[in-house]
Amino acid sequence: MTVPMLTPVDSTSVARVGYDPDAEEAYVEFHDSGLYAYRGVSARVYKKLVSADSKGTFVNEMIKPRYPFRKV
Questions:
Q1: 68: closest CA among 7, 29, 26, 11?
Q2: What does the domain layout of the chain look like in residue ranges?
Q3: Could you read off the pLDDT of 41-53 as tens digits, one per residue?
Q4: N or C: which terminus of the chain has fewer CB atoms within 10 Å of its end residue's CB?
């Protein structure tokens, strides 16, 4: 498994994000708990994450409750 390039974001809880379009996986690295991969995230949802005013709120409300994840 190869982790895609992660991009730093302006957030108090999220450090970096990345996306693997072939696997439809969003990668979210949190400042305090490490890197997680969320399976089944569409490119559209990932783009909304990247453009969200609050990355942490978006992850908590739109990604964590809806997509299975694993710690990377």
A1: 26
A2: 7-71
A3: 999 999 999 999 9
A4: N
